[in-house]
């Protein structure tokens, strides 16, 4: 239990136990609601801010027809008569508008999600009257009929209410999902760049400007910076508790038939 003004990153041993317990319950409830799962692939990722999140692929049997997708996955703001779901969507599933546009309506090129003048997450999404398969991208284009739906990431109402946090859901119709998943399996740990040097009189001199120090650092960046593994306290606690970072069901065992 967190104390007042205490964040989850302060007590990683509690954070990972709660996350792991909730994730197990989430998978159990997913199977109970959606029925038979042919296989499951799960990857746990930790970013530099510390908190864990999971990438999960479920293969359902029978497969979900496109006509039934709107009953399972939604990309629209719920109506006012569903206040709890509406509040969760507004809190967890809406991409911040200021990450794309400034207050005056111009493109926010300084945002971390902007690349070559476009949002790398695809926001704002175009409006669509129906959910359909895009034959060019081989991705599902979800129904978004109102202006307020531009910035909403697709979600499952049932799973969002269950998880009570960010829970992005997509229907996979091509091999790109597996490329995306196994990229996380094989990409290795996070890394950080840092510089180690002795403190000089210039560093202690308040008269030295920040710009001068930055210029000096840039001049020596090639020789001063070391690329190293970055392990957050939360990931360290996850590993100490013996929790798995990847999981596949059913498991696959390679047979050495050609040895």
From TrEMBL:
InterPro entries: Helitron_helicase-like. Residues 5-57 form the Helitron helicase-like domain. Pfam families: Helitron_like_N. This is Helitron helicase-like domain-containing protein. The lineage of its organism: Eukaryota, Fungi, Dikarya, Basidiomycota, Ustilaginomycotina.
């Amino acid at each position: 239990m967190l104390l007042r003004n205490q964040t989850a990153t302060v007590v990683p041993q509690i954070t990972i136990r709660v996350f792991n317990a909730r994730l197990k319950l989430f998978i159990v409830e997913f199977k109970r609601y959606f029925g038979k799962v042919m296989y499951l692939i799960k990857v746990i990722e930790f970013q530099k801010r510390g908190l864990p999140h999971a990438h999960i692929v479920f293969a359902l049997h029978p497969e979900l027809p496109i006509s039934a997708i709107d009953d399972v996955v939604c990309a629209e703001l719920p109506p006012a008569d569903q206040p709890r779901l509406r509040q969760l969507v507004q809190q967890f599933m809406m991409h911040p508008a200021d990450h794309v546009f400034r207050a005056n309506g111009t493109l926010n090129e300084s945002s971390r999600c902007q690349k070559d003048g476009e949002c790398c997450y695809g926001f704002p999404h175009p409006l669509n009257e129906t959910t359909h398969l895009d034959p060019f991208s081989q991705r599902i284009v979800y129904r978004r009929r109102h202006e307020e739906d531009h910035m909403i990431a697709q979600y499952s109402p049932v799973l969002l209410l269950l998880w009570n946090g960010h829970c992005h859901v997509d229907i996979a119709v091509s091999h790109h999902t597996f490329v995306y998943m196994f990229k996380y399996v094989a990409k290795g740990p996070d890394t950080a760049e840092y510089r180690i040097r002795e403190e000089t009189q210039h560093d202690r001199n308040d008269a030295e400007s920040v710009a001068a120090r930055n210029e000096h650092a840039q001049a020596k960046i090639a020789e001063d910076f070391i690329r190293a593994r970055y392990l957050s306290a939360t990931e360290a606690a996850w590993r100490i508790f013996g929790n798995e970072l990847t999981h596949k069901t059913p498991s696959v065992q390679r047979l050495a038939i050609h040895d």
